[in-house]
Write a structure and sequence with these properties.
The protein has one domain (about 10-90). About 20% of the residues are buried. The chain has three helices and four strands, in the order H-E-E-E-H-E-H. It has helices at about 10-20, 65-75, 85-90, and strands spanning about 30-35, 35-40, 45-50, 75-80. With about 100 residues, it is α+β, with helices and mostly antiparallel strands. The chain has a four-stranded mixed beta sheet, covered by helices on one side.
């Protein structure tokens, strides 16, 4: 079963902070796996870790939802997300 509860993140500022897919420059939003938040790109089957307990909703996740999300994420590869150079400077991160 493919999870349908991917949280879209339409606001560009969050995509800049949390990153986008290095292949297409987009994000399909994030999924909660327990307290963990993973952004994904469905087209390239890529995922990148955003953090723990940053966004709402994980507390209401059922066991079935968590299992479904974990199964999906196991099929995705970890990538380093792309962020804007200006945002990386603000965050104190070395730009690639």
């Amino acid at each position: 079963m493919i999870p349908t509860n991917v949280m879209p993140f339409p606001e560009i500022e969050y995509s800049v902070r949390c990153g986008v897919c290095p292949k297409c420059g987009k994000s399909d939003g994030f999924v909660n796996l327990g307290k963990e938040h993973w952004f994904i790109c469905r087209v390239h089957k890529s995922k990148w870790f955003a953090g723990v307990n940053l966004f709402e909703g994980w507390q209401n996740q059922t066991v079935a939802q968590a299992e479904s999300i974990e199964l999906m994420l196991n099929g995705y590869k970890d990538v380093v997300p792309v962020r804007s150079i200006d945002e990386e400077r603000k965050l104190g991160v070395n730009a690639i």
